[in-house]
Design goal:
The complex is a heterodimer of chains A (51) and B (184).
Chain A lengths: L2 H25 L4 E4 L16
Chain B lengths: L4 E3 H4 L3 E4 L5 E10 L6 E7 L7 E7 L3 E4 L3 E4 L27 E4 L4 E11 L5 E8 L6 E4 L5 E2 L3 E4 L11 H15 L1
Parallel strand pairs in B: 2-7, 8-13
Antiparallel strand pairs in B: 1-9, 2-3, 3-4, 4-5, 6-7, 8-9, 9-10, 10-11, 12-13
Classes of the chains: A mainly alpha (51), B mainly beta (184).
């Protein structure tokens, strides 16, 4: 295996690693502020202050 | 009486501390609230640390002693429960996340996105407003109750929304007082 081939292999491996890391970071959701499913997902009729 | 106002995003990652031992039990992942009254019904959790993984456990609000500026306090480890034992009003899904919801008027005009939610802390924490930004009306705060509807996709506001938006927390608190006094 020539030096160029080794270099190419390293570049490909790094690219694969970078893509995998990006996917992992994207999927690792940090958290959020969620509306409870019950009793209302849409709230027009359940507003507590009458407006 | 001290009123503690917090941002929802600030609660994410906050430590859950056992008040009886001082142990750091977990950290907050998601805040779950009811759209109507804004009452926070509980939290989903993850393990502490940068690589903290999701913890298959939840923290119902009834088990919380207080939501403070630096930690969420619980009486003991029994406060954390299995999701299957959680109260029904804690059921939610990640698609119900209001952060980055589009803010639209009833007539269909886009005004920006929900940047954050404002939470009144203490033993009975609740969502009291939404922080809006990135749109035509600039940054501002909408008190809970000023909106027509809210879901995991959009926050719908009246067409006269600009009159209800507040630029600071003091203005939001004043608007909330007005809403609550007129609603009671």
């Amino acid at each position: 295996m020539t030096g160029v081939q080794i270099l190419l292999l390293v570049v490909v491996l790094l690219a694969v690693f970078a893509v995998a890391a990006a996917v992992w970071v994207r999927r690792r959701r940090t958290g959020g502020v969620l509306i409870a499913d019950a009793p209302t997902a849409s709230s027009t009729s359940d507003r507590g202050n009458g407006r | 009486m001290t009123i503690t106002l917090l941002r929802g995003s600030d609660l994410i990652g906050r430590a859950v501390v056992d008040a009886s031992t001082g142990d750091d039990l977990a950290e907050i992942k998601d805040v779950v609230f009811t759209a109507g009254r804004g009452a926070i019904t509980g939290f989903t959790l993850r393990r502490r640390g940068f690589f903290g993984r999701r913890l298959k456990a939840v923290l119902p609000i009834d088990a919380v002693l207080s939501v403070g500026t630096d930690a969420v306090m619980v009486a003991d480890t029994d406060a954390i429960s299995d999701p299957s034992d959680a109260p029904e009003d804690m059921a939610s899904h990640e698609s119900n996340d209001v952060l980055e919801d589009e803010v639209v008027t009833i007539s269909g005009r886009s005004l920006g996105t929900v940047r954050d939610v404002i939470i009144l802390g203490g033993p009975h924490p609740r969502v009291v407003g939404f922080e809006v930004g990135g749109g035509t009306v600039g940054n501002g705060l909408i008190p809970l109750g000023a909106q027509a509807a809210v879901s995991g996709s959009a926050l719908v506001v009246p067409d006269d929304f600009e009159q209800r938006i507040r630029s600071d927390l003091t203005g939001l608190a004043a608007e909330l007082s007005l809403i609550e006094s007129s609603g009671s």
